[in-house]
Amino acid sequence: MGAETTSTAGGAEVSAHEAWQGRTDGRPWMLRSLIALFRWTDIRILYGVMAVVVVFYMLFNRRGYRANRDFFRRRLGYGRWRTLRSVYASHYRFGQIILDRFAIYAGQQFHIEIEHNEYYRERVSRPEGFLMVSSHVGNYELAGYSLHPEEKRFYALVYAGEKETVMQNRAKCFAGNNIEMVPVLGDMSHLFTANRALMEGNIVGMPGDRLFGSQKSVRCDFLGASAQFPLGPFALAVQRDVAMLSIFVMKESAKRYRIFVERIDTGDASLPKRQRMEHAARMFSAQLEAIVRRYPTQWFNYYDFWE
Fold first, then answer.
1. By three-state DSSP, how is residue 251 classified?
2. 158-161 long-range contacts, Cβ below 8 Å, gap at least 24?
3. Residue 147: its pLDDT value, please?
4. Over 50: is that where the pLDDT of 163 sits?
5. For range 187-216, the mean pLDDT
6. Predicted local distance difference test score (pLDDT) of residue 231
7. In the chain, what are the domain boundaries?
8. What is the layout of strands, in order, in the sheet containing 130-134?
9. Which of 163, 216, 289, 297 could form a cystine bridge with 231, CB 3.0-4.6 A?
């Protein structure tokens, strides 16, 4: 199954970044074949295949299965049977979203509804740059094909270890949407690109729920327990004095998605910068919690997020 895989390094203590190394499974020829298949196959047929394949994926991805099970049991308080159904539903929904991405590469279209699009349009129309903070729920990649920031260039920070086939097709789809992918690298060069983009009045997209590069973090109350959120996106916004928006792209049916755009307040400018950063991070975590409670089977952090 094409999916972002979850693997955990050895040792008693593993950071969230180390615990998750995301890339799309499958050899390049398999991924290219999947794109070709979507040019003449109804996506619902492949959904049917995925319904069976996902069972085997769950059996062999034990760490991800256990983390997902604990999420439903410990964080959402589900009973045993509801947890089992939800774990399967989560893996199946994730498989559907991966298929949707390849369907888009093949030219298929989805119906998109956007809540609070006016927040996004307001920021795009201004000369200042701004940050858009995403997370690993739903299908964030779809936002890049839907929002069309003609007035500004969008710099999206992405995982550097993704398969070349996926990166090439993303680049092809993004080409007409004024979007540039910025791989997150160990030399931290992506931060220089992000800083320059904001200074030039453009948009920077960053994940707000995983530690990439810098290990600086802030503890937030999330689904009833303390969890680490990366400080980076919120520090960048405060230091550059730019606005922030959160964005969540959630699947609602076979061919329908809903995009949620929310404002993230960075607090009173007279307050200490660290306090403002933490305030923004906690506001984002509260927005993310509301989305996860509404779409629990689209939580795709398949590791112990509260570790």
1. strand
2. 158/182, 158/183, 158/184, 159/22, 159/23, 159/183, 159/184, 159/212, 160/184, 160/185, 161/21, 161/22, 161/23
3. 77
4. no
5. 84
6. 93
7. 16-105, 111-298
8. 111-115, 256-264, 243-253, 130-134, 203-207, 154-159, 179-184
9. 216
